[in-house]
Amino acid sequence: QVQLVESGGGLVQAGGSLRLSCAASGRTFSSYFMGWFRQAPGKERESVAAISWSGGSTYYVVSVKGRFTISRDNAKNTVYLQMNSLKPEDTAVYYCGATRRNVGLGSTYDYWGQGTQVTVSS
Predict the structure, then answer these.
(1) Per-10-residue mean pLDDT for the chain, 122 residues long?
(2) Other CB atoms within 10 A of residue 2 CB
(3) What is the dihedral of CA 100, 102, 103, 104, to 10 degrees?
(4) CA nearest 91: which of 79, 83, 99, 103?
(5) How many alpha carbons fall within 13 Å on the CB side of residue 99?
């Protein structure tokens, strides 16, 4: 089992940047496929980005491609989401997820963090 803790959310103006972190417990982080999701008020949770076990493959939803970058540091048991050129429509609670399977941008993750709020003002 793995426990996930997100951090780095906050309030930022449109066009600004934030870097989210997701720290994982345990010694088998490199065996987990990791993803970032978000959920805006009144909307379903959507996949934002995902990264393979070694970081060699990354996946992005079209709406964030070119603006967001997912990365991981297996030595630090942490996955990151660098968010640039933020837009008001990026406002949501952001969650990280972990699974041992390659699910790409799917949502069938086994473990979830508690989320961190990102608010982008216009």
Answers:
(1) 96 98 92 97 95 96 97 97 98 97 88 97 96
(2) 19
(3) 130
(4) 83
(5) 15
